Structures
1.
Amino acid sequence: MRSTSPAFKANARAALADAQLQRALSEVAPGLAARRSAARAGLPEFEALRERGRAIKDHTLAHLDLYLEEFERKATEAGSRVHFAPTAEDARQIIAAICREAGARIVTKGKSMISEEVGLNAHLEGAGLEVVETDLGEYLIQIRGETPSHIIAPAIHLTQDQVEADFRRLHKGLRKDRVLIEPTQLVAEARQILRDKFLSADVGITGANFLIAETGSSVIVTNEGNGDLTQSLPRVHIVLASIEKMVPTLEDADTLIRLLARSATGQEISTYTTFSTGPRRAGDPDGPEACHVVILDNGRSELLGTAFREVLRCIRCGACMNHCPVYTAIGGHAYGWVYPGPIGSVLTPALIGVHSAAHLPNASTFCGRCEEVCPMKIPLPGLMRHWREEEFSAGDTPLLYRLGLKAWASIARRPRVYHALVRTLMPVLGALGRRTGAFRHLPLARGWTKHRDLAAPQGRTFQALWADHKAGVPR
Amino acid sequence: MGGSAGRPRVGLFVTCLVDLFRPSVGFAAVKLLRDAGCDVDVPVGQTCCGQPAYNSGDKATAEDLARQTIAALEGYDYVVAPSGSCAGMLKVHYPVLLADDPAWKARAAAFSAKVHELISFLVDVRGLDKVDARLDARATYHDSCSGLRELGVREQPRQLLRTVKGLELVEMGDAEVCCGFGGTFSVKYPDISNAIVERKAERIAATGAGMLLAGDLGCLMNMAGKLSRQGRKIAVRHVAEVLAGELSDPAICERP
């Protein structure tokens, strides 16, 4: 996927002016935050669970090589083939080759952000395959030619009437009098289309929420059950997951699952949680004939020895974006690449380079709510600040801003100069604004006064008044 | 700066915004601290806590300002700031900033232990449970992010505000959601900042309160600036002004 992150400011402006998007965001995001809050309140050991979850991931990341090897061994014993893909290109090639060898024509897919990251659909379609997304949200954006705007609710930017209009436009044979108002009616309509695809697909591709080293299993959680049909009906099942999805044991996966659904949607557990281990065994009533697990690195292992290692704890619940004042104002597309919101602002510079993603770690108020709700306690603002430091050291900070910062710093570093200067300046500014109490326009503060008034200073500085106060001069 | 017997000596970190824009908040803080049995001084070796540099990736400048602030204030029993954001910088971030500097690591840690946000200091350290103030108004309180999440300032201001005679405290929806200020964020991304503060202004207005209070002048200037631009008649003040009964100056952005 090509990044539009360099155009973040323009993207954000367009998003703010998009009335339909604003309506969609205001309908869904606050509900997700409220449901998380209720779910958290309903589980007294939630904080202890977060600590446990963090420890599991930290331990796994510290010994990732060992667990990857163990996973490969166990998965192979269970009959799967494990492929390591160092880059996105490798992942695309491996999966295309599996499809080719299987003689596949139709590929169904469960929701997978890694698939978005490697640009899988376009590649497979280029190879002549029909690719069908089966998660309702993914299906919607696929038929619209869009990308996900949220990591668990990919079509969160759409309203119901848009979905209805798309179905009426694209679903041939949909009767005009068919009622499509309630979400359940829309889901039923999509299911009708997808059912044929599930049954005729040759290959099913899913992501994984977790890979379990001790059993060689992959785990997916969904609310629609589409993942199960995607992985059990076709002849070939391909799991596409990144290296940090690894956990050592079934019990570890269980701990993280308890955190995941609560943090994501406020559910105690997702409707479907599916563990799959290898292809169909003799005597199994169903399941694929062959199972492949493609494990993607794509720059992640380079983060292991750095401060950014912590971002690899992420379990992709989306809580950080649901609680982010910036994300909930502009939506996900404005961020310009696969992963939006606070997690994207940390992950994207790592995966596509801080130079092209420079806006993302800067576009945060550092309110800290993301870190507060993150089930894996990832210090997202701190890591964004790390990117800002790298950007500043590399001289990528915009020149005018840099100069302003330098001028301000040279004064702030010298208390005497500072106090002498502001002692003269503030009373002047105060006198200018005294009549109105605030400035509507101020030449050097346009970024501020474009949207809000600037309070006029009271006049003399505190330090000037305090010096008088100490000398016994009445205020 | 010698304190009277038994009275702790407090170094007030007045913050640059209070120094420049609203000294009345500084004097309100001094009054509250003195009433709570402290001797107060405001050393002139302080300027800004360094947060604009720190959050812009300019670590070297932030470290310089951290050392400067510590040197100016470490001699007091306590260091108190009328801002959760600046107090958080001093308390939480200085030790991280100077962790790799052998000459300053221990000093930063010892300094950190002395730092408090004003209102939580009054309640949690000085044991204040009521103030002697009166204000006939209906007010709502915004939780500024750093004070809330870095320092746990939440109940303390509400507890003291409830003891102000005549004051009715009404909660707004999403009081703990950011106002969109974010320091330099507000001028680097003005359109996004505006969208966030517009939402905040709606929440404030929906309470029907005639007054908005918070503990951070940056957030207050942001919200007051928006409410003023919208023509809403809501008086915006630092919570210390109300608790100290220092209300003779016009509210933030208010025409005298």
2.
Amino acid sequence: MKPIALIATRKGLFKLDSEHNISEVAFIGDPVSMVLTDNKNNVWYAALDLGHFGVKLHRSDDQGQSWKEVSAPSYPQTDDKAKGDSLELIWCLEFAEPGNPDKLWAGTVPGGLFFSEDGGQHWALNQTLWQFKQQQEWFGGGFDHAGIHSICVDPRDHNEIKVAVSCAGVWVTKDAGKTWQNQSEGMRAAYMPPEQEFDPIIQDPHRLVQCPSNPDVLWVQHHNGIFSSIDNSQSWQEYKEVPPSTFGFATVVHPQDANKAWFVPGIKDESRIPVAAQLVVTRTTDGGKTFESLSEGLPQQACYDLVFRHALDIDTTGEKLLMGSTTGNLWLSDNQGDKWQCLSNYLPPIYAIRFIE
Amino acid sequence: MPTVVFTSNLKRHLDCPPQQVSGGSLHDVLKSIFSDNPKLVSYIVDDQFRIRKHILISIDNELITDRIHLTDKVTSESKIYIFQALSGG
């Protein structure tokens, strides 16, 4: 049966097929932090966080039937070994050029962006962005050190890339990483002292997504709430009154309709459970003028699931959404979130979900 | 020659039978091991060539003390165990 999505979990990589069967792919027992698929070329990548033995990257050229370990990104050695940085997590992976399965961007903790042009055999740290990190002393959000969790390669020009950093806001390059500019104007961090609320360097976007068919529109689920940009991240607008909560981690945007976006709200900051123990998905269909809570098929009592930032995905048609939680529940919607069907209650904690395109 | 033995848990990921290697310090021993088995490098040391946080190494039943510069002494009769901490999984 043809797989339609991959599910990266705390205890291995799984796949979902079109008949809603879930089966093991690889790495059972090991944490898989991220997956990336290029189905035209049959290439899949899986990033592992082995704990004791460090971060690893594996590549498959036959859609997961066999895997080969390739190099993980590595931070440059420093004169002072005690203070030098080391890779802690591959938090996001994206293809750098459409149709080329070998050119990759990797966002990592502790804050480095890496590029590979040979399928992960070799990696280069983007030194320009890294210098900003070192000089500005980006701080961590969720981890002890800063991390890049979102990479948006502009479909109009793959040299234009936006990355989101916890915590350093949104950064943009238009020359494939030679120069960078922070573009977080309008983002607000209520958790900071009043004088620093709008400081672009301390913003904590939890997830950044870009509409493929209308790339000037971007949506952000921020620690502080929901934001969007309609001018290619030149400015950001905050949506403050969105019940039951504007806090969350995940967001997706409809691939053909930039006005449609989805979020999974929770109680901020440390609690991170559904409001009133009722899991809902928040949706806007009019570019943020209104928001609605979608709950049909989702647990409405005694639910304490959290949906991590990469654990909600939308397919290329914009009809199907797949959502996984820290409690190992997996839900599918075939109708843009109007109704959800639980596909499993027994998966390990879910880190990331990708529809296979 | 010093003998190096690896935790069985590492064998889930890599082939790493016990090895006899040369060297007067842990640094020398690791360099020798890694030259024979380059894939092992990132499993034992981090990007700065420090011992990974959740890896433990003993030399003749004593835990090493220098996890950064790897200067702990090794004799020709030493037995070195590379194993994992109970934390960090």
3.
Amino acid sequence: MLEIKNLHVAVDGKEILNGVTLSVRPGEVHAIMGPNGSGKSTLSYVLAGRAGYDITEGSIHYNGEDLVELSPEERAAKGVFLAMQYPVEIPGVTTMTFLKTALNAQRRARGESDLDAVAVLRLVRAKAKSLNVSEEMLKRALNVGFSGGEKKRLEILQMAVFEPKLAILDETDSGLDIDALRLVAEGVNVLRDPARAMLVITHYQRLLDYIVPDRIHVLAKGRIVAEGGKELALELEARGYEHIVGQAA
Amino acid sequence: MNLALNLDRKAEAAAIVHSHGVPHRRIEEWKYSDLKAALGEQGLGAVVAEWLVGDLPNGVEIFDLAQPNPPVWVMAHVGRSIQNVMSAASLALSAGGVALRVPKGAAIADPLKLDFTGLGHVRALLVLEESASLNLLEGAGAADFRNVGFEIVIGAGASLEHVRISQQAGDAVLVEEANVRIAAGGRYRAHFAGFGSKLSRMELEIALEGAGAQAHLSGVSVLDGKRHSDVTTNVIHSHGDTNSTQLFKHVVGAQARAVYQGKVTVAKGANGSDSVQTAKALLLGETAEADLKPELEIFADDVKCAHGAAVGDLDAEQLFYLRARGIPESEARGLLLHAFLEDAVEEIANADQRELVRTELLAALKAVA
């Protein structure tokens, strides 16, 4: 589903990723772990199509298509979803209006008809309950005044509503206490599906206790320096990044 | 205006017009709105513009200022304030206009619709007596040149909601001066939606004259092409324990220009005055311009005054977030522009009028974004 080959990315002329190769098949959950500054967030932004990231070498293919050529909105309509580390506050747009606008924009791009307000509300309500997203939150301006946990829950709610094929979770665990973390992880696990791939980006092994990955890649200084099964997370937890990064160098 | 009406005031106004002439950009208050250049050779003229009142709600009294024998309430207020040379011109050069009165204690439920049309000068007077309340929807139609001099008197405990929509008006030069006097416990809530013209200026002078008097001003403008829209306010806290808020938002594209000049004066002894002023503009291109000038003059102690102005572009992070959720760029921009204006629109108390302004904004944003 996702094929990243020898990806080099520069920001303001400075190389952040230098030669990342990664392959994710439908139904798989991959974790990308790494210390701060390793390029984890850069990778997630490049996949979502944010401006300011220059791909100097390599390629990204998504279902056989060159992802780099697509605008962020085209990627979203084709099923790429990025749960952001820092969801943006948008005063003046209610959460519900945003969800309806985005869902219908994606549907339209796929040649599907718009859902009316009642249908969207029904859909959102059904998914919101298990994520503990209240009616009141849906009426408020998007992310404005939301706590860290509320913002992350809303990201996962969007994932549930948009039903992406490739979900990238960028540090979804950051800023969450253990109860919120469990709630978010459950929300993600419910969405595990043979047709859906996930890329879970995290600094800590903690999240992977709840979202158990099929494969773990360790990113350091813009390269993948170690790969393995879920047991790699435990090794990292026990011995720290220094050990693995040092070994690779 | 009826000649018997106030000959002295009319003569005084004429003298002001004669000595000052048409305002131009070298006069500080008109720096961003060069009326003389916009009018060109046609000058101020001496034509009488027209007014049109929609269905008159029960309980509202009306008097045509062109008619003889004005009632006492008209005589008591008309022409009492001459705030600047254009207000003087409307008094000196007009022979017509409308006066409206809401009697003591009358709460008028239906909005009153007042439109100014045609070319020239016109006067208007609105008197809300003690504890009266009214909703006024004012429309400003296009004309080569029009100058409206509006006097609003809000009695003790009275309440006026005023919404003015100035449609996009191509080559028109539209100037209006509103002089609002608010007695103790009186409330004035006004919203000005402007879509610009060759030169559009709404100038407000608001006096908070008794304890508990309040003025809440808000406005939005969406300007395209070479259009111009100027809101100039002068809020005078002449009495203590008074409150004023101002929130103006502008979206400016192409070579358009938005102007906000807001002055708040807290007079000596007007302790306990509270005032907030905010003006923000989004510029959609290199050639768009916004001149935002909040200003404070405080002569009293123990006052709370805050002001701020900001000019910027759409937030790139917000734009990316929306696009990453599948919303196409143009639609995302439209959504953000609308959101930017929304808090000012929410200041409109009447739901129908709020929707009316939203609809106009959507259409204008579609054109400019």
4.
Amino acid sequence: MSSLACALKSVQGERIALTNVSVSAVLHDLLEEVTMCQSYRNEEQVNIEAVYTFPLPLDAVLLDLEVEIGGRVLKGVVVEKKAAEEKYEDAIAAGDAAVMLEQLEPGLYTMNVGNLMPNEDATIKFSYSILYRWVGERLRLFIPTTIATRFGDSPHAPHQAPESSLAVENHFSLQMEILGSLKDAQFTCPSHQVSLTRLAGRVIVSVKQEQAAMDRDFILNVKALKASRSFAVWGPDGDGVAAVASFQPFFPGLQQTRPLSLAIVIDCSGSMQGDSIEQAKKALEGIIESLQPADRFALIAFGNSTHALWERLTPSTPASREVARHFAKQLAANMGGTEIGKALQTAYEILGDINSADILLVTDGEVSSWQPVVQEAKRAGHRIFTVGVGNAVSEAFVRELAGSTGGECELVAPREDMAERVIRHFERMRAPRAKRVVVQWPDGSCDIAPNKLGSVFGGDTVISAARFNESTIDGLVVLEVETETGETARQELTVSEVPSSTTQDTISTVARFAASMRLKEQNATMGLNTALQYRLVSPWTNWLVIAARPDGDKAQDIPAIRKVPQTQAADRTLYQSLPAMSLSWAASATAMPPSAMRAARIMRGMPLFSRSATGDSQRATSSAPSRFTGILELIRAVTEQDWHEISSWAARDRHPDLSQNAMKFRELRRSGRKGWFSETELLLGLSILREARSLGFQLSDTILDAARRMNINLDEQIDF
Amino acid sequence: MNNSRTFTLDEIAALAELPRRTVRYYIQTGLVDRPQGIGKGAYYTEQHVEQLLLVRKWQLAGLSLERIGEVLKQQTNGPLPPAPRRKGTVEVWSHLVVADGVEVTLDPGRACLTPEQVRAFFRGVAQVYEQIENGKEER
């Protein structure tokens, strides 16, 4: 077998070197520290190099990296990028083990685990810190787990470019501890089944499934009282101290609403298929609903090509809104690639040089080369408000596009409240613009970051950092916002010392955090200095660990490469490549109201959670869908041979769709899948069995037994 | 011909003006042969340099690494077989609904069609459909 074919093996799900990811997080007030543990194992006869590209939240600041290999624990160091790459190559060539973590672009990282010997394990533990931002009374904790397929060639080196595969399912476990002021908050998890335990002084949230599929973002929504939402802290920074402040200003809205000139841009590319396009349509519904008589708007849908409903801005009248609604109804994720740059260009042309015109963009952001789009948007000068949808949104793109144009970003997962977020965007667009935004740090401050504060919206969060050459801070930090209407909002915070656990460290986490904010505005030379001084991964620095092997144990050959593929993002999985097929819902789904059933059917997805009708309750509202456990047991009882028989029978009996679907399951089984399936797959599997049975195929006794045991009615009508 | 000259990985990378990591990746994926000898005694020959330059040439011509792998494997000069579709690949297809129950799907990338050609194709299909529809009515 050629090495290329050999490398492709890993893509086909047969030899995945990444065996597990475990995430543990501690949220203290607004600062969260997340520790991720990636376990790798070489189960082959040759030495390998595992390469895994993975996402982290855009605002994550990597703090530490530690590698356990061959019984040794080695601490990572931050090294200038070129030098790190050279040292890594030298180590690989010399037959030693080496681990290198590099940042590809904001929010995207590659872990290189070189020269893992046969039967050897390596555990890589790294931690990051993140400062969350309040939006009104809501905070959204976000941990991405996979990179959805992006449109266009990857701008990264071939070993780094993420690839996703249907046949691969990576797994993770997650536990989060919440301390401090947020321990009494309300929590909702729209993405996973979680358990929530309230103990004295803390709350523990964990994903129930011990081996959850890395096929969607983990999201935890937090609601808390105003009092606990702003803070300022300081910690040691060498001879001086560094401080970070998080404000949430509120200022009165306008007396009369500001009429909008708005270009609405909707992503209808293939990647939006499934949950995302349904979300986009829901968003559009809300957007049209929010338009007022004095507004003017344009509506643009795009994929490979761009389709504008009108060539210029059109007054919002009952008639034009009706036309827009009709246009919205017909949208489908069938317009091919994601030519988002061209679509925005059309929006710029329509808006022309209209003063204070805005763009509202709904997309999953799955574009490989997104940075040029952001640059172009900056030049165009219109504010872009983004709604990032889907199960694995490209956070960096949608957030930076909004942030760098003076707009704001809302990420909305399929089971989150879309209407609320759309309304929020309209409030921002109609709000008076901030004319002057200043953060005044106490005397002695230097290195204030960001140097220039961007847009500020009432109820959103403003973060600022500073350095002091003194050993303590005396005084208040003050945010002042003056709006174009002359209103002034002022917020003062006391800067308190962070109790440090690692007292021997002269550079505190706060200091590194502050440095990471400065880094974003620095050029290569200064950035490199800052990154090295504060041990930060950046466009100019990598984390590196070299584990030298004794002479007799060195690898003798260039390692075989094993790229770790991304798990295909939820819901797009089978539906994209399989013929359209409706799913029926077990009669036991009692918690689901008819409207939700209908929506669920349209989405062809999996309503994993039935939100209680009363909205957020006191605890996590993800009610346990125990029926999935039953379906899982049933699907586990179906062997590769069973699927094969269903498939060939269906082919003979002229049911090509059924045959193909069954074949897909046979392949999943064959690729080593026995005990776990995503919920989407489970429902599809169940519907295949039902359909086959209703068409007259004799299911095996084992399957029928399992169905009886699990109380699943296989004769239920298939609901098209 | 003098084939006795040998090189290190560093040297062939420099000759091809490629980063070491990239050269190593080409070797790992079989685009370039593995070195002669093992461990510290590994070395490269002019043949390796030629292979590297060939890969570079195809890359500059716009071929993906996978496609280059296929080109290199093909011994004869005939036309290339269509690129195989890997299991687990996710493809983005454009759909055109011609009428209720009639849909055309295509992947412009694989079909090597420009957006203009795609539109022309879709227009043509729609026209043919209309003709057939009209024909039905006349009968």
